[in-house]
Structure formats: C-alpha cells, structure tokens
Design brief:
six-stranded parallel beta sheet, DNA-binding (chains A, B), alpha/beta, Rossmann fold, DNA-binding, LacI/GalR-like_sensor (chains A, B), homodimer, DNA binding (chains A, B), four-stranded parallel beta sheet, transcription regulation (chains A, B), 338 residues
Chain lengths: 338, 338
DNA sequence: GTGAAAGCGCTAACAA
DNA sequence: TTGTTAGCGCTTTCAC
C-alpha cells in the first residue's frame, strides 16, 4: 500500500502518469496541451494521476520535439537603471499575461567578445522571440550580430529600418520641451547629454531642431556620464556663465546633479536658471523644486514591444513599428528668465 | 559546388557537423563539451565544420539528455524598484561570470493562484537552481510553495531556518543608525515603515531594540506604501508634532517624501527635525540636504546569493548562510536637536 | 581516442 | 476519440 508509482526519487514523467491513469502517453499529452479532444472520463483519470504524482511536464522535452517555446529573451546593456528596469518590467508584464517567460541577457559593452558571448547564449536557446533594448552601443551591437531567423523586436528612441521596432518619440518630445523653454523667453537653451547610443540621439536632435526653428544660437553640447554626480561640476560651470538661463538635461538624474552644482555655485533654480530633465523619474516630482521633465512611459514601451513580437510570431504582415509621443510634465524647475 | 551541407533552411544539427567533419556524432559532442579527449586533427576538422555551418548546439536537447542546465531562475515580487533591481543585477553578474543564464519570474501578489502560476512556471524548467527574493509577502509565499528538490537560495533581510540564505543584516544596521540619532541627543526616534514582508521586519526590529536599550520611549510606527509620495502627508503630520525631532524611514524614497512633507509644513531638516533613510539610493547623496542612510550593497547580496547557490550545487556540505553588515553613510540630514 | 547503440520526455503523424 | 510508431538533437554508455 502507498507505494509510489514511477521511479523512486525521480520526477514523474508523462509515462508514469499514463500508466497510473490507464491510458496511453499521447492521451496524457492531449490533456496537457488541450490540442485534441479527450473523453471526459479519461481526462478526469489523467488529471487525477497528474495531481497524485504532482507531475509537471518537462519544458526541455516539449521544446525539443515541438520546436516551440514559451520563453523570450531580452537583451539589454543594463537591468537596473531606471529606464531599462522599467522597460524590462513592461516586457515581463506583457509576456506573463500571455504565458511567456522572460530570460535576461546582459551585454556589458560593445566589445566584440562580449557581444558574441551574449548572442551565442541567446542563439543556443529555442525561443519564441527576442527583444533588444537598443538604448546604448552594446544594445546596438548585439542587434546587428543577431540572426534574423526568429522573431525579433528592437526597442529604442530613434527609428531605423530593418527590425520591427517600438519607440518613444524622444526627438519630438525634446523639441517640444526646448520650444517651451524658448517660449518662456529664454534666448537659447543649453544641453547636457547622457552617453548616446549612436551618432544620432533623439533628445539632442529634437533640442537642436527647436533651436534652429527658432533661430536661436546652438551652444556646444556638454557630456555627462550615466552617473548623477557627473552633473554637479557641469552645473557649477554652467552657473558661472551669465549667458546661461536654461538647461535641458538628457535625463532626470543628470538634471538633479546639475541643479546641485548650480546651487553650490550660489544660483537658484528656476529664478536664475531653469533646468529641465527627461524620463520623469519617480523622484522628479519630489525634488526641490519639482522637476519639469518628459514623461517617458518605459513600461508601456516594453509592453508595446512584446505586442509587436507577439504579432510577428503569428502574422506574416504584422506591424513593424509602434511609436508613442511622450508628454511633458510641467512643474516648477522652469520659469521665464528674469 | 557550394551546396550547403544539412537540411536547407533549418538550423544545422550536430549530425550535420559530424558529416561535414567526417567524424561520428559523439566526437563532435566531445569537442563541444570538452568532456573527453579528442585528437588534435579531428578537433580541428570539427571546429572548422562548426564555424562553416555556424552551428550552435540546442540547449533544449542538451538539457533533456544530460539533465543539467546552465540556467537559474530568479523569483521576485518586483524587478524595477531600486533594491530589487540591484539585487537582480548582482545575481546576473555573478551568474554570467560562471556561464549561467538568468530567467526572471515575477510574483505580483501572495495570492494563491498567482503564487502557484509562478511556482509551476519555474518547476517546469530544468534548472541549475533557484534564487528567491524574500523581500516581501509574494516572495515568502513563493518560497514556501517551492519544492526543495533542486538547489535553492533565499535572499532577504531577516534570518530564518530552512533554505540556505544570504542576508543583509538590516536589524543591526537599523539599530546602529537609531543609536546614532539617540547619541546625537534626541529623546527618541520616530519610525516610518515600508510594507513589511512578514510580522518581523529587520529595520523595525533594530530600531525598537536601540530604543529599548536606551530606555527611550517607543512611539507608534507609521506606515507608508512603496510610493515615495506616501511619505509626504506623514512628514506633514510629523512636523506638526513638536515632540518629533528625529525620524527613521524604512527607505530613502520614503525619507525624501517625508522631508518634502516637513518642508511643506514650514520646518527644516536637520535644524528642526533630523531624517534618516535606508538603502543609500543613488540620489540620496544628491538630495538637499544629503541624506544620512544605510549603504545596502544589494548587488553584493545578489552575488553572495549566487555564490551560495553555486556551492550547494557542487558541495553537499555547502555554507547555508552568508550575512553582511551594511555600513552607515553619515551625511547632513541628521544633526543634534536644538 | 573513437564509433555504434541507446534513450532523455515529450509531441506529431498516422492508423484504427 | 484513442493507441501505435517515430523521432526531436543531443549526451551517455559501452565496445573496440
């Protein structure tokens, strides 16, 4: 009595279930996948056996024989920085809702060996598809090396041909934000850039476009790193120049660093200098003064990206592009010049 | 001439490689895994064939037959919030360094169906191991439901028996931080808590311990959500009470919200009220005033967690516990009472 | 050092 | 509706 069916100590397999239920292996498979009809009686026997053995089908075996997988890979240069983390969260939420699992592959640099390692790790897997965060040079490099034999979607800020893509129209938002500052009466707007993914960076492009359209002078671009503190010396330098009355920063963290530098130099935001950022970081609203910035729906970007992937898995003529225009969050860090 | 070896349009398999190289399939396998010796001549032929066909072994087939996998699963209640994102980053870095891939499974709530879904998704996979972020109730619930048949490690702030575990000793750090405030001359320290994972929360425990040891009164605990803005009304309420001179917040984001509330109420930090946080958020140093907080090495926690997992995969008598004491970052948001 | 044979756990194709 | 047969792409015996 009570002897366990199946090999002791091992996970039960589908044939253990079949044996216990008194049916054939394919019938168990039919119950599992729901692909074909099974009589109610047998179905119940099978389900009882599954429950009794606490059976879980082996994903590896399924993938091997069916050549189909419920796993997608996300390739990203980073997983924890705000925009990256939120985008991955959006992908995961959309994927989970459709019963897919997410595998993360980080590409630290655009270094050839590193990119190859990441691409090979992905190509070994049998995957339903791949999403690449084309936010930075490693992401761009990985995308270029990736084979196109499986569904593939890129996520980024600038449109490019080739791979299906979901984007946030950063250039349009940056242009709108810069135009807003000019409209406030500023003669021009200075720009602090975060490390760009390529020669063209949507935020910088939009900024420049707004200045050109307004016939405003285009000051030299200042470069920050991803590190918020890198904005501090830039802010001090900017504060020392009386010509500077408005600054557009490539992201909110840098804007916060720049504001700190301006404060250290004894000048005030927004009374002396207006500062705006990009991304609508969770702390932007809490900052003093609350930061005027661009609401980037990264989680939405991730969700749109997965939707695009899903479409291209099921439909030959799937959409190849999804764009969304971010909105500006008007807060207190920008004001007319005195 | 030029006819491709292998089935057209399909990925090449190991037998295509064997055929092209003029060796048997197992020999190719030996070259791939490096498990057994192969003569230099054959090895070269095989490597040439692999390169020519751009062959990648199928991970699914390998896993099926060898019952070994180079993938680990991470179960987490969240992926994008600071502590979570950094911990996952640490796990991924350590895993990647050892050639492992990370699969993410999010458990949104401690709801039974949701926990079961996540656990089943994990148990279907053939995995080298599982890391659970026991930071919140969903994490705790998932850990409890998870079978113990494969290597498993929990990451959290409070020690418990059972599963091997890496922790940050939050209770000790909280006690030290609270004692520091008392040492500054504050009569007592108020506490704003973030949603706890269980009845016992290390941060709250350490705070209470320090107060008891100093015979200081223990004020009622105030509850915030994970949302930084939830700290604002709490800060206003605290500022209205003249008894309040020092506040210990469950994390930095809440501390920032509380400080904003205090400012809105017209009182100053640290002159009127000292505020300290927990985690050393990237923006804590940039805040005005710079926030005194606890440096939590989440990435290090993740790395230690993976190390524990690796040990328990290879060694029966592996360590079952790794603890680290976070350090306090003394900055300007805490000062003696006036 | 190398190859032949077996089979991992499942689904697909077919026949009944 | 159900069972039989075949085989996914690899690694693992086991001879030689």
């Amino acid at each position: 009595m009570g002897r366990t069916v199946g090999r002791e100590g091992k996970n039960p397999t589908i044939s253990d279930v079949a044996e216990l239920a008194g049916v054939s292996v394919p019938t168990v498979s039919r119950v599992l996948t729901g692909a074909a009809k099974v009589s109610a009686a047998k179905r119940e026997q099978v389900e009882a056996a599954i429950a009794e053995l606490n059976f879980r089908p082996s994903a590896a075996a399924r993938v091997l024989v069916s050549r189909k997988s419920r796993t997608i890979a996300v390739i990203a240069g980073n997983t924890s920085r705000y925009g990256y983390a939120e985008t991955i969260r959006g992908i995961e939420i959309a994927a989970r809702a459709e019963g897919y699992t997410v595998m993360i592959t980080v590409v630290e640099s655009a270094d050839e060996d590193e990119v190859n390692r990441a691409v090979e790790a992905v190509e070994m897997q049998t995957l339903a598809g791949v999403v690449v965060l084309k936010f930075d040079p490693p992401g761009v490099a990985a995308l270029n090396r990736l084979g196109t034999d499986r569904p593939l979607v890129a996520l980024s800020g600038t449109r490019e041909a080739g791979v299906p893509q979901a984007v946030l129209d950063e250039a349009a938002a940056a242009e709108e934000l810069t135009a807003y500052l000019l409209g406030l009466g500023h003669r021009t707007v200075h720009h602090v850039r975060v490390p760009p993914s390529r020669r063209v960076d949507g935020r910088t492009t939009g900024w420049k476009r707004a200045l050109r359209k307004a016939d405003a002078p285009v000051p030299p671009v200042l470069d920050a790193t991803w590190e918020p503190l890198s904005g501090v010396p830039i802010g001090r330098a900017l504060a020392a120049d009386p010509e500077v009355t408005a600054v557009f920063c490539g992201n909110d963290e840098i804007a916060m660093g720049v504001m700190r530098g301006i404060a250290e130099a004894g000048r005030r935001v927004p009374e002396d200098i207006s500062v705006v950022g990009f991304d609508d970081h969770p702390l932007a609203e809490l900052w003093s003064p609350p930061l005027t910035t661009v609401e980037q729906d990264f989680a939405g970007l991730g969700q749109r990206g997965f939707a695009l992937l899903l479409e291209s898995m099921n439909d030959e003529n799937a959409r190849r592009y999804s764009s969304e225009r971010p909105r500006i969050a008007f807060r207190a860090s920008a004001a007319p010049p005195r």
